[in-house]
Amino acid sequence: MKNDAVKKNVLIVYAHPEPTSLTRALVDVSVQTLQEQGHTVALSDLYGMKWKAVFDEHDFPARADTERLSFIAESGHAYSTGRQTADVEAEQAKLLAADAVILQFPLWWFSMPAILKGWVDRVFAYGLAYGYKGKGNHYRYGEGAFKGKRAMLSAIVGGPAEDYSPRGINGPLEQLLFPITHGTLFFPGMDVLPSHAVYGSGRITEAGVEAAKAIWRSRLENLFDDAPIPFRRQNDGDYPDQHVLANHIAVDQTGLLAHIAEKAEARVTGAAEG
Ligand SMILES: Cc1cc2nc3c(=O)[nH]c(=O)nc-3n(C[C@H](O)[C@H](O)[C@H](O)COP(=O)(O)O)c2cc1C
């Protein structure tokens, strides 16, 4: 057992309604492995909870402006005045109590299922996950309410690993997941670990499932030791105006990878199909 002196709180948010799915099998591995390490595990089973995925006017029972619905203004108002819905408050409390957050989901259309996206849309309130301390974008990308927490994605992927390889037809998985790792988790300050994937989930054999569980188990054992993706922090000097990279940083580089520090390309660990 690693880190036996350090007991942490881990929140697992997962999105699969089928108990016999590979996603659920890997969620079970998460719970068991983390508990065996002495950590306290909280679960958000979004389908089981019948999580309301759609962010709409019902999220704001006490509107600041009843004439026109501005999501950002109402989110900030509801959060700061304690008038959010109970389900959102409960998830925020779980998130704030967590030292690490793991999102486990089947890859659907190169992203997370809508119910999980809806968890982010509704739980990541203005004043908390963005607009932190009422200071607009001052605290973002490495700073914010979730600083000090770790996060990791565990994606169960139908297609074969080669489709997601550096020159694969779908594009590299870590780049496809960038809006989640960088734009959603690093944005409010979390340290995001390289994502984990199980490929070829649709035609995986029993032996492949066992291998995938073992690899995931060993990944979890390093949850609090692995180095995070070295995303560049907004307020550490690489973005002098808080918007654009300085000319001397990532010279001649554009696109997503420019926001990851040199010599440390994001990598996905994972089990190939078997
Ligand atoms: C709506 C939908 C969208 C999907 N999109 C993708 C995709 O973008 N890439 C991919 O490789 N597989 C895709 N798949 C396949 C799923 O990733 C695959 O069915 C899932 O990983 C199986 O895992 P499970 O046993 O946990 O359901 C999709 C499946 C569904 C139902």
Automatic annotation (TrEMBL):
InterPro entries per the UniProt record, alphabetical: Flavodoxin_fold (IPR003680), Flavoprotein-like_sf (IPR029039), NAD(P)H_dehydrogenase_qn (IPR051545)
Alphabetically ordered keywords of this record: Oxidoreductase
Pfam families: Flavodoxin_2
Flavodoxin-like fold domain mapped to chain residues: 8-220
Keyword Secreted (UniProt): no
The keyword Oxidoreductase is annotated on this UniProt entry: yes
Signal peptide as annotated in the record: none
Family: Belongs to the NAD(P)H dehydrogenase (quinone) family.
Protein name in the entry: NAD(P)H-dependent oxidoreductase
